[in-house]
Amino acid sequence: MKKTKWLSTILSIAVFGTLLTGCGPTPTPAPNNSGAAGTAEAPAAAGEYRFGKIDIPGKDGALCGAPIYIAYDKGFFAEEGFDVNLISADFETRKIGLNNGSIPIVNGDFQFFPSIENGVDVKVVDGLHEGCIKFAVRPDSDITSVEDLRGKKIGVDEIGGTPHQVASLWLENAGISADPADNEVSFLPFSDGNLEFAALENGEIDVAALWDPLGSIHEKAGDVKIIFDLGTDEYFAGRFCCFLYASNKVLKENPEEVAALLRAYRKAQEWIYENPEEAVNIITEKNYAAIEDKELAVELVKSYGYPSSSDHAQDWDKRVQDDVRYFVDGLSSIGYLESDPEEFAKNIYQKVDL
After folding, report:
1. Which of 18, 22, 69, 103 sits between 20 and 30 A of 112, alpha carbons compared?
2. What is the pTM of this model?
3. How far apart are CA 163 and CA 166, in angstroms?
4. Is the pLDDT of residue 40 over 60?
5. Which CATH number belongs to the domain containing residue 60 in this structure?
6. Residue 251 domain-assigned?
7. How far apart are CA 268 and CA 192, in angstroms?
8. How many CA atoms, within 13 angstroms, populate the side-chain half-sphere of residue 184?
9. What are the distances in angstroms from CA 292 to CA 132, 280, 286?
């Protein structure tokens, strides 16, 4: 059922700040390869960098940002002609960078779609990974499924953020209104996942929608029960939760640059698929993401569905386009998008010739 404009209004105010950080928590600067805090510098490459120095937001600390860390650390960006500078960038920096082309590419969730509708000048150019959000309840909770959420309080990182959107889709598909005016559920925002978990423990909320690895860490410790996993839920399983978005300015003026970036990302995805344990070693030892349990980190990285070279060779672009349309339809059905779904899905995706 098509909802009122409440969701579009919320998203036009709140969505862009979190989605441009990609999947994961609020950005926090990560140490460089030497282990000391500071600006990361790309590994040296033979010869000159064809595309020169570029900035890529890649210091958000999210485990599912692995392709960025690996493309940087293993020299895949350098091989494709880029002297990459990994940066922490706030909302205004990213918006300005994408629109003027100084930031050519970012990773972001499907919650990016309403921001494109509101004027952000980017295109979906590839898929990045699956999964990475879990909904947790207390171990003694009688909540076991979405049908039990009517009248409950749900913690999220931000109203309009990806966990909020995912919860809204999950609720609406089960016939429960996510519109606060209907008073069927309520959402409480927490700027930090640990604060959200504390609120769950003390009963301030009934459900915590948590980014990996926090939900998985507490599940393994027996502190919570997981009632929803983005990677395994029937509606979301096997589909991208995170895409790559390219600056439309760069796409128009230098499509070869975007193609080279995508080749670097794909090399990284394939390398992670082949070497998940080594990828985790790099990510943890160089502090790209904060997780001490390497066994759990490997399990999570494998669950994100990073593709192999054969996956990329088998209708990969069609899969990306199909998932764009799938989530456009879903977001349109609950009022997150107001455009014609077929036309909008066609307009926001661009296949890049690699």
Report:
1. 69
2. 0.85
3. 5
4. no
5. 3.40.190.10
6. yes
7. 29
8. 16
9. 17, 10, 12
